[in-house]
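ESCALATION

Customer reports they have been waiting on this structure for their group meeting. Please prioritize. Original submission:
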Amino acid sequence: MEPRNNTKISKFILLGLSEELELQPLIFGLFLSMYLITVFGNLLIILAVSSDSHLHTPMYFFLSNLSFVDICFISTTIPKMLWNIQMQSQVITYEGCITQMYFYILFAGLDDFLLAVMAYDRYVAICHPLHYTVVMNIWFCGCLVLVSWVISAMYSLLHSLMVLHLSFCSDLEIHHFFCETKQLVQLACYDTFLNNTVLCFGAVIMGGGPLTGIIYSYSKIVSSICGISSAHGKYRAFSTCVSHLSIVSLFYFSGLGVYLSSAATHSSHSSATGSVMYTVVTPMLNPFIYSLRNKDIKRALKRFFGMETFKKRPFSLGLKKYP
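Update from on-call: job pushed to the front of the queue and completed.
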């Protein structure tokens, strides 16, 4: 890794998803809509969990943390993209780019770890139900979230410091709608073997580690469900995992698809387009997936908005019965 040269880089150019001017209003409207839906949808999940004491359980504690992280995750990239489109500018400052990269890696890592923690929570609930309240106590749940934050922050800081030591050439165009680490490394003038090595090993450890935990947890869950004799019992046990499995599939398959497509085609444009799936679409679908199939969330939201007071009650004229 070479030290930086004396030329001070002040800005980068974000080329975005498309450089065609006629498409910019469409892109702006589409991404503004998805951003607002994501923020309000995940805020509703947080409000529902925090306002209803029946949802003060480990599963919903992790879900509210995931919703908070998803809001932060999408807010790291989309507001700057919308601002650039509105101002008809493609510029992002050097400091802004490094900051955006740091928080992008931070919240992506947190998504990984929280999905793994939620899988472990389902494993304990289904495979060891009698020990669930003892194992998943408030201190242990808090420690799991804290450790996820610490590891993700340290990993993100590592990449940020390594990029800070790079020297960049005159070509400062990033073929993406945000400051993606791999794109920044490709703009460096000198040998980036160390950066690429850390990127590769980091992806394996930070992505593969939690995914391995998820696969192991669900292998045990499936084995435990198969041991349940009644069909109704199997359905109830599996139904608690469907929402989480849907989010995991969306997040990992979209991320893997982006990696494989960019490796096969070496196209920055296809990588940028594909990354919309896990940076925007997955956080947006999270509240829909967890609320549409979840009676507890629906009930909590109705209570929050005072809708339960309008439930139908038996009609009575208040007449007394006489013998």
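Sent to customer with the following note: Strands lie at 11-14, 91-93, 173-174.
Escalation resolved.
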